[in-house]
Design goal:
Layout lengths: L3 E4 L3 H13 L3 E7 L6 H4 L3 E6 L10 H10 L4 E3 L9 H9 L3 E2 L4 H8 L1 H10 L15 H11 L3 E9 L2 E6 L2 H19 L4 E5 L5 E9 L5 E13 L2 E7 L6 H18 L3 E10 L2 E8 L6 H8 L3 H9 L16 E8 L11 E2 L2 E3 L6 E5 L6 E2 L6 E9 L2 H14 L1 E3 L5 H8 L2 H5 L6 H12 L5
Parallel strand pairs: 1-2, 1-4, 2-3, 4-5
Antiparallel strand pairs: 6-7, 6-8, 9-10, 9-12, 10-11, 11-14, 12-13, 14-19, 15-18, 16-20, 17-19
The structure holds ligand MV4.
Length: 454
């Protein structure tokens, strides 16, 4: 096992990884920008190295600075958290080339899944159901029209280098397809340096359901069930729950088997998430994330596993200590992402937290690096806390989340807590009857009905 790990991240996820390390008796090295000198992830680490000025590209995204910090502190492995360098295949290669271990999948798997056309071809070949569409990249405008006619309208044009909703265009007609193809490939070329696009049937009202997996370097792969992440705004998730209110145990079992069989075939290891759109009882693969995800704690709540501990054990070459049969799901869990934002406009609200009191009590977990006096710099994303609760039933979970939100005091900045409170009062949420469009529609109405505070 590693004796010392460098954590190449900041905020709550840096702290989350530190917690797993400390519980495993592993020493931790924090890295930080000059904006984060006073941050909790720096204070609680065994050692800390300043790696550059505030902007991410000059610090947390600076590969050479991060690797140098690992070398001078004698760290043996690097955990990237999520975001920043977590899905950067070049970084994973560089870590390995310096004799260090990247705590994540192989650079090759990161590379394949980072290219959305390759990812889809790979998933399909491995037996995962995909959205009907072009077989791979669409070469030109005329091909685009021909393929769209075959798929049936509306169609969606997606950038191969995009993902997470970046570079998507809906086309309702043949003329739309011609126009959207040009615009989409031009934009993709400008934004990602790669103009390749592909096409899919547009699914009008799906849910976003993702399957969590863990694989070791000995060919074992298990799935840890699904998370329903349909509540998003501008492709930012704000609330997640598991199990999905839309699935029954048989469906879970079936999609879980399909996914684990496929990933065994691919030789995938470490943590991963296979993302699906789910509509009319059917699953359609869209992307795979080759990292630990923000919302991993809800899976931990209902499985009793520590995903970061498993990631570290896997990276150290150990076998998974359990099989699929050992994985049991206990009740329900939900996560509210608390962002330093205006809850109606979602404008960032950086500043100083003047007063802070986190909720506690039974089956409540708060993953945050905030404290009274915390400064929230304007340079990074606005997630400041994740409030996670578990309940024996879905209703118990909702009641517990409401009471935990009521207890949460964050003074000095604006947060998305009032939005979560409003969302959890909606009948559609209580019924579990929502899709990927529900939240945006709700926010529009909510802002109209209660424009000021409340
Ligand atoms: C789609 C889709 C409808 N049909 N693909 C957006 C993020 C990216 N990962 C995939 N996305 C979508 N792909 C087909 N064929 C609708 C979306 C989509 C979406 C997906 C998940 C969660 C929220 C979303 C919001 C708008 C659009």
């Amino acid at each position: 096992m590693f004796e010392k790990i460098l954590i190449a991240n900041r905020g709550e996820i840096a702290l989350r990884v530190q917690r797993a390390c400390r519980e495993m008796g592993i020493k931790t090295v924090a890295v930080h920008s000059t904006a984060d000198s006073e941050a909790m992830h720096v204070r609680l680490a065994d050692e800390a190295v300043c790696i550059g000025p505030p902007p991410g590209r000059d610090s947390y995204l600076n590969k050479a600075a991060v690797i140098s910090a690992a070398i001078i502190t004698n760290a043996e492995a690097i955990h990237p958290g999520y975001g920043f360098l977590s899905e950067n295949a070049g970084f994973a290669d560089m870590v390995k080339d310096h004799g260090l271990t990247f705590i994540g999948p192989s650079a090759e798997h990161i590379r394949i899944m980072g290219d959305k056309v390759q990812a889809k071809i790979t998933a399909k070949q491995a037996g995962i159901p995909v959205v009907p569409g072009s077989d791979g990249a669409v070469p030109d405008e005329n091909a685009a029209v021909e393929i769209a006619d075959g798929i049936g309208y509306p169609v969606l044009i997606k950038a191969s280098a995009g993902g997470g909703g970046r570079g998507m265009k809906v086309a309702q007609t043949r003329d739309d397809v011609r126009e959207s193809f040009k615009v989409a490939s031009g934009e993709a070329k400008a934004a990602f340096g790669n103009g390749e696009v592909y096409m899919e049937k547009y699914l009008a009202h799906p849910r976003h359901i993702e399957i969590q997996v863990l694989g070791d370097q000995h060919g074992n792969v298990v799935h840890l069930g699904e998370r329903d992440c349909s509540l998003q705004r501008k492709h930012q998730k704000i609330f997640e729950e598991c199990p999905s209110p839309a699935l029954n145990p048989k469906q879970r079992d079936e999609i879980g088997k399909v996914v684990t069989t496929a990933l065994k075939k691919l030789g995938y290891y470490n943590a991963g998430t296979v993302e699906f759109l789910y509509e009319n009882g059917k699953f359609f693969f869209i992307e795979m994330n080759t990292r630990l995800q923000v919302e991993h704690p809800i899976t931990e709540m209902i499985t009793g596993l520590d995903l970061v501990r498993e990631q570290i054990r896997i990276a150290a070459g150990m076998e998974l200590g359990f099989t699929q049969k050992d994985v049991e799901f206990q009740g329900c869990a939900m996560e509210c992402r608390i962002n330093a934002e205006n809850p109606r406009t979602f404008a960032p609200s950086p500043g100083t937290i003047t007063g802070y009191h986190a909720p506690g009590g039974r089956r409540v977990r708060v993953d945050s690096a905030m404290y009274a006096g915390s400064k929230i710099p304007p340079y990074y994303d606005s997630l400041i806390s994740k409030l996670i609760v578990q309940g024996s039933t879905r209703n118990e979970c909702i009641m517990r989340m409401r009471r935990a939100l009521h207890e949460y005091v964050i003074d000095g900045i604006q947060t998305t807590i009032p939005l979560h409170q409003a969302v959890l009062d909606q009948q559609a949420i209580m019924d579990g009857a929502y899709d990927i469009h529900w939240l945006e529609d709700f926010v529009a109405q909510w802002v109209k009905d209660s424009p000021a505070k409340g």
